[in-house]
Amino acid sequence: MSQVISTWSVKAVLFDLDGTLVDTAPDLAAALNAVLQNHKKPELSYLDIRPIVSNGADALIKLAFGNTISAKEQRSLKAELIEYYQQNIAQYSKLFEGLAEALLHLEANGIPWGIVTNKPAPLTIPLLKKMNLHDRAASIVCGDQVNNPKPHPESIYLACQQLSTPPEHCIYIGDAERDIRAGRLAGLKTIACEFGYIPPTEDINAWQADHIVEHATDLSNTLKLLT
C-alpha cells in the first residue's frame, strides 16, 4: 500500500454493489439467457454478458436483442428479464473473494460500511437479504431512491448523511467511471476495482481514482490496512 493511502483518515466505507462488492453477473447472465431461450434465440456467452452487467437491464436487453427493437419491445423484454431475475435472485451471486473477511474486519473495528448503487431497491434489497447483508449495512442507497443517480453525487451525499460521517472521512469503491466520478464530486477518496465489470475497451486509469486495485483480494487487504 502506498504512502499516500496510508495517510487517509477513514471512518466509513461505501461500496458499489454489482461488480464491486457482490459478483452478481452469473445470476444476471442466467436471467438474460432465459429470456433469449423464451424467444428461441441462441444464448450469449458469459464472457460477453459480464462487462455489460453494471450498465443495467436496458443495456443487457440491447446486448441480446440489438438496438433496432421498438421501445415497446424493449420494455416488454426488460420486464421479462427482471421478473426472472427477481424469482431467481442470488442463486449464484456471492461476495468477491476476500470481501467477507474485509467486512468482518470493518465491523470488528467499528467502521460502518454501506452500499450506493444505481440498481433499484426492488432488486437490491431482496438480494442483500438473501445474502444476509441487509441488516449489516449501515447505509443502503439505491438508484430509485434519489432524484439523480450516479454519476451525480446525490446518492453518495445521502449515504454519508446516513452514516453520520463527513465525506472527507469516507471512501467510495466502484468498478465504473460513474462510480469514481460520483465519489470524487462528493469529496470522497475513491478506489477503482479492475476486477469488476469493465469493458475491455475502457481505460480505468482515465477515471482518476485515488487508487486502483487489480484483484478483489487486493481490495480486501487495502481495507484491512486502511482501518
Structure in words:
The protein has 10 helices and 8 strands. The protein has 227 residues and is α/β, with parallel strands linked by helices. It folds into 2 domains: 3-23 and 94-226, 3-Layer(aba) Sandwich (Rossmann fold), CATH 3.40.50.1000; 25-87. Helix 2 (25-38) crosses helix 5 (71-87). The longest helix is centred in the middle third of the chain and has 17 residues, at 71-87. The radius of gyration is 17 Å and the shape is globular. The mean pLDDT is 95.
Identify the CATH class of the largest domain: Alpha Beta
Largest sheet: 6 strands, parallel
State the CATH architecture of the largest domain: 3-Layer(aba) Sandwich
Low-confidence stretches: none
| Derived structural class | alpha/beta
**Averaged pLDDT:** 95
Strand content is: 5-15%
- Individual helix count: 10
Secondary-structure element series:
HEEHHHHEHEHEHEHEEH
The strand count comes to 8
Give helix % range. Answer: 40-55%
Indicate the radius of gyration in whole angstroms.
Answer: 17 Å
Read across the widest sheet, the strand sequence of neighbours is: 5-4-1-6-7-8
Distance between the termini: 13 Å
The CATH homologous superfamily name of the largest domain equals HAD superfamily/HAD-like
Please tell me what the overall shape is: globular
The CATH topology assignment of the largest domain is: Rossmann fold
Number of domains: 2
